[in-house]
């Protein structure tokens, strides 16, 4: 038996229920992991609300956690019981005490990184890795726009940009979040509840604007983001925190300067063990060196049984950086 958070229908945080399940032994290519810290991601709210559909109902929730390998499938050679590990996968169910995971989605955790740091940083840090290093390779001294800079993904992006010597302009929803983003390495911030995003980006860049915008806010910022781009610039739309972008007339890309748009997902960049190893080793060395700090504030560590409250806090824009469930 294992406790897990389960949904039987879509809805608000109240549909998250703590239940006992019979957990099978891991399949041949899986390992069973005793979760020590579980990462909360905004995508979890999409699967709960119905914006994204789980494979079947009832469904577990959650895509990442850190813990200890307790059982190993018959075909697994790269992991053994007792290994400290972290995982991120598109299959749901990480909101649980124990979980069976495809061994190719699991990375060994260096001793210098705690379970909580790993669960706070893995999926979000791998996301920042592909965004800044692969989708568009941000250069030293380059100025670019990154929305929700004080969020989980955002605070890692601020620190990674600083490590690259790049100049991240971060949008934020409050003065306190602006301070935090600046302290984490943002070059400049824009409070998008009070300031005009495109106008401020133009001012900050002496009218040049930017070659790339990373937008996870979605519906509310789509058009302003396009207005921040230079001719032939790249719009990276990678999330829906305010709702999905829909009904786009492609002619807008022509009107705003022959722009490019991409809508990437982490799981299109991490498709095998080699890609996972490459990206995670870069992330782990930045965390171990102190260049990226992912310590989670105590008020953002929730018991597994308090998943409802964790989702309420995240969706009310009440969090800074990452949040965790502790089984
Ligand atoms: P965050 O911690 O960033 O939380 C979301 C933040 O978005 C809020 O704190 C808030 O910050 C901002 N926001 C702006 N408008 C709204 C709104 N209307 N409602 C709620 N929040 C709003 O979450 P994560 O770090 O987990 O994820 C960030 C984004 O990245 C999400 O959209 C997620 O889906 C996306 N993502 C995409 C991936 C991919 O590969 N495509 C992978 C990982 C994450 P503020 O108050 O400062 O505005």
From TrEMBL:
This protein's GO CC annotations: cytosol
Matches recorded under InterPro entries: ADH-like_C (IPR013149), ADH-like_N (IPR013154), ER (IPR020843), GroES-like_sf (IPR011032), NAD(P)-bd_dom_sf (IPR036291), QOR-like (IPR047618), Quin_OxRdtase/zeta-crystal_CS (IPR002364)
One Pfam family this sequence matches: ADH_N
CDD domains assigned: QOR2
Record flagged with keyword NADP: yes
Enzyme Commission identifier(s): 1.6.5.5
Listed NCBIfam families: PRK10754.1
Name of this chain's protein: NADPH:quinone reductase
């Amino acid at each position: 038996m294992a406790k897990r958070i389960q949904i039987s229908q879509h809805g608000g945080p109240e549909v998250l229920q703590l239940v006992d399940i019979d957990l099978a032994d891991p399949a041949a290519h899986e390992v069973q992991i005793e979760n020590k810290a579980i990462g909360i991601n905004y995508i979890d709210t999409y699967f709960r609300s119905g914006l994204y559909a789980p494979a079947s109902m009832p469904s577990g929730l959650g895509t990442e956690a850190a813990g200890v390998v307790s059982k190993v499938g018959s075909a697994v050679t790269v992991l053994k019981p007792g290994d400290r590990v972290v995982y991120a996968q598109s299959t749901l169910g990480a909101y649980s005490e124990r979980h069976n995971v495809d061994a190719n989605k699991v990375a060994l955790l260096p001793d210098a990184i705690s379970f909580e740091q790993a669960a706070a940083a893995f999926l979000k840090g791998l996301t920042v890795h592909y965004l800044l290093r692969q989708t568009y390779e941000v250069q030293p001294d380059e100025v670019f726009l990154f929305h929700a800079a004080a969020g989980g993904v955002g605070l890692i992006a601020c620190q990674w940009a600083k490590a690259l010597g790049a100049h991240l302009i971060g949008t934020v929803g409050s003065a306190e979040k602006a301070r935090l983003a600046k302290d984490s390495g943002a070059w400049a911030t824009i409070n998008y509840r009070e300031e005009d995003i495109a106008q401020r980006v133009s001012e900050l860049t002496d009218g040049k604007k930017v070659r790339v915008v990373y937008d996870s806010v979605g519906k509310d910022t789509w058009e302003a983001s396009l207005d921040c781009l230079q001719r032939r610039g790249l719009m990276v739309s990678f999330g829906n925190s305010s709702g999905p972008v829909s009904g786009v007339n492609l002619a807008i890309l022509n009107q705003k300067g022959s722009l490019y748009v991409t809508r990437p997902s982490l799981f299109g960049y991490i498709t095998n063990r080699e890609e996972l190893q490459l990206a995670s080793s870069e992330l782990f060395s930045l965390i171990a060196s102190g260049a990226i700090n992912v310590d989670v504030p105590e008020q953002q560590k929730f018991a597994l049984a308090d998943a409802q409250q964790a989702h309420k806090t995240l969706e009310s824009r009440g969090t800074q950086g990452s949040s965790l469930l502790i089984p």
